[in-house]
Structure formats: structure tokens, C-alpha cells
Amino acid sequence: MSDPLTARFLSHPPHCEPAARPLTGRRADGSHAPLARSSPSRHSPAPGSAELCVTASARPERPAGPARVAPPAPQNVTEARAFADHTLRMILEVLDRRRKPDHLRPMLAAGLVDTVATLSRAELPARRLGAAALSRVHVSMVGPAAAEVFATYARGPRVFAIAARTERRTAGWRCVALRIV
Question: Dihedral of CA 72/74/76/79: which sign?
Fold first, then answer.
């Protein structure tokens, strides 16, 4: 019998994903530029989990020409992180029925508040695992006034994911897209 640490395989496993290739398209000014790649989700949510994907507003159109984004100010990163942490905790409290959905109105776009309220009224099997506890929050600035947020939260022994897009508006930060898995 051979030692499992020194075992050797006869061949490499097959590569199942196609090679990545950039998509290009023609902009309004006639120049070629890479286009965003969108791929449909190829997974199904785990049993006992709910999946929500809502976008309340479309992203603003980018001006033609080379994209030059100024690095975000450290203050914006700190504000975005604090806002994301606070907002995600409140969303999980609403989903657990420990807080009213109306408390989310100043932080979420109107369509998202209604969707989270509807999801909180639903009988979700995952809720039987216990209260949701936010574990880790990661913030990635995608512009001086926009951030992509992704986090994990635990319900009993299971770990789930939540993601959002936040944008800085005149009245402060606001969550404009949300996905809960």
C-alpha cells in the first residue's frame, strides 16, 4: 500500500472551463473597446437557502475615451466600509424579523426595501438554522463614489453569502443592488 502523500496520478484532470477571451465591441465614437462579460449563474442555491438578485437602478453610462479613474480617497473607503457593515447587519436583522423593513428606507433604494420586506415575510427553511450573524465584510472601491461589497454570514453551522453595490449620493451612501444567497 502506498503512502497517500506520495501517491501519483496517471494524468491531469480535464480542464472544464473554456479559455477566457476578451469581448470587444464598437463604442459610439467608432473605437474598439472591451465589453463587460456577463455569464448566467450555473449553480443552484443550496437547499434551505434563498437567493435574491435585484438591481434598483442601472449603472450610469461611461463617457467614451480611455477610462481614467482617480483613486478613491481614504475617507471614502472608510465611510463605504462603515456603511456596508451597518447596512448588511440591518438587512440580516430584517430577514430574521428582528427589525422592521422601514428602517432600511434611508439606506436602500426603494425597490430593494420592498423586496427585502417580501423576503422577510416568506417562510425560509434557512431561518430554522438560527439567527444570522455577519462574519466578514469586504469592500472594493470601483470608483471615487461607488463600492462593491461582499460578505459572509453564518446561520448555525452553515455559512451564506451576501453582496451589494453601494454608491455615494448627495445625501450619503446608498445600496443600489443586493444579492443574498
Answer: positive
What are 123-143's pLDDT values in tens digits? 888 888 999 999 999 999 998
List CB contacts of 90: < 8 A, sequence separation 6 or more.
99, 103, 104, 107
Cross-strand partners of 32:
26
The pLDDT assigned to 9 comes to: 57
User: By the 8 A CB rule, do 130 and 94 touch?
Assistant: no
The grid coordinates of residue 57 equal 437602478
Task: For the beta carbon of residue 161, count every other beta carbon within 10 angstroms.
Answer: 14
pLDDT tens digits, 71-113: 666 678 888 999 999 999 999 999 999 999 999 999 999 899 9
Q: Which three three-digit cell numbers place residue 87?
A: 447596512
pTM comes to 0.62
Which cell goes with 145? 463614489
Cα distances from 160 to residues 132, 149, 181, in angstroms, run: 9, 14, 6
Residue 75, judged by CB atoms within 10 A of its CB (0-12, 13-18, 19+), counts as exposed
